Inverse folding.
């Protein structure tokens, strides 16, 4: 059985910050707070481009925002894992956006 490492703020930034920054027309975020801001901008841009999947990204932004404010490590880990799952198709959405611009 294969297990994957739990999501962390660092792993989420490493996996998604560059692509989301492209869509948000910013430099890649280095903090979860900045990443959430860019994700919200990217959600808007994806919506304007007619790209499906923004609901999952909205959920991810909520989870990330809550994780950033969480004081309990277990709660933070659960929220980061949920956010990571909701970001699963973000790279595909970024690729579709790149093809349009």
């Amino acid at each position: 059985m294969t297990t994957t490492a739990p999501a962390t703020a660092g792993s989420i930034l490493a996996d998604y910050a560059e692509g989301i920054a492209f869509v948000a027309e910013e430099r890649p975020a280095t903090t979860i707070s900045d990443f959430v801001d860019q994700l919200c901008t990217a959600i808007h841009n994806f919506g304007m481009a007619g790209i499906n999947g923004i609901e999952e990204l909205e959920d991810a932004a909520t989870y990330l925002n809550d994780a950033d404010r969480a004081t309990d490590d277990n709660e933070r880990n659960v929220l980061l894992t949920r956010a990571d799952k909701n970001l699963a198709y973000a790279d595909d959405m970024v690729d579709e956006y790149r093809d349009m611009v």
The CA atoms of residues 74 and 80 lie 10 Å apart. Residues 9-100 form one domain. DSSP finds five helices and no strands in the chain.
